[in-house]
Amino acid sequence: MCSVRSKFLKQKSAAIKIQATVKGYIAKKSYKKIIHAAVVIQVRYTAMIRARRIRCEYIRLKDAVVKMQSLHRGNTTRTYVKKIKAAIKIQSSYRRYRLFQKYRRFKQSAIIIQSSFRRYQNVQKYQKLKTAVVRIQQYYMAYRMKKKMEEKFKLMKKSAIVLQSAVRRLQCRRRFKLMKTSCVLIQSRVRGYLVRKHYLEKRNHAIVIQSYVRSWLAWKPYKVRIQQQ
């Protein structure tokens, strides 16, 4: 009896060590995947910010050229302003289209990450349940003819395995909820930034057009007075 019990204790300690190593490997693997996804999102976001800065500089240079041309052309500013308005509308629609395409790409990538994470969780749950069932069957077939104390020990072990599976399920759900909330926060901040940027660009264009028209209206009567004198 002592030899059988010592063998059983050795087998139990070996199984616990194997479970600990497997759990650590799975946790490291999931953590590396999450870090890689976060790095990809950061790189794309920085590239988008740089492209917007370049566009702002281009718009500023364009406005300076338009001011110089408006001083020399005079009476042709009305038609020129109309052309600028049309170009601004085209640019705004094109930028809106590009921003919508980027948003769709970010959304698709987030959906792919969520689906892969859920698939990974389901596979891990199935493997854990399968290994737990196989171990229970092996223990039951090996020690079913022993005394009542050993049977009680088996029942206690089964209940402990069920509790472990429930705790692991709760941990996986909490991790998924944290990832989901982080993705939603990132999406909401990016959308707010894009809307504010688009509004400021429209406002700046409208201010520039108003300044051109007012300067032309102020210059016209002054020019007539000079001619009369």
Terminal CA distance reads 127 Å
Estimate the global geometry from the Cα principal axes.
Answer: rod-shaped
SSE succession: HHH
Number of helices: 3
Structural class: mainly alpha
The overall number of domains is: 1
The averaged pLDDT comes out at 78
Largest sheet: none
Counting DSSP E segments of at least 2 residues, the number of strands comes to 0
Low-confidence stretches: none
Cα Rg: 35 Å
Task: Please bin the fraction of helical residues.
Answer: over 70%
Give the strand content.
under 5%
Task: Summarize the model shown.
The chain has 3 helices and no strands.
Folded structure, characterized:
With 229 residues, the chain is an all-alpha fold. It is rod-shaped and about 125 Å long. It is built from three helices and no strands. The model has no long low-confidence stretch (mean pLDDT 78). The protein has one domain. Helix 1 (2-73) runs antiparallel to helix 2 (77-143) and helix 2 (77-143) packs antiparallel against helix 3 (148-228). The protein has helices spanning 2-73, 77-143, 148-228.
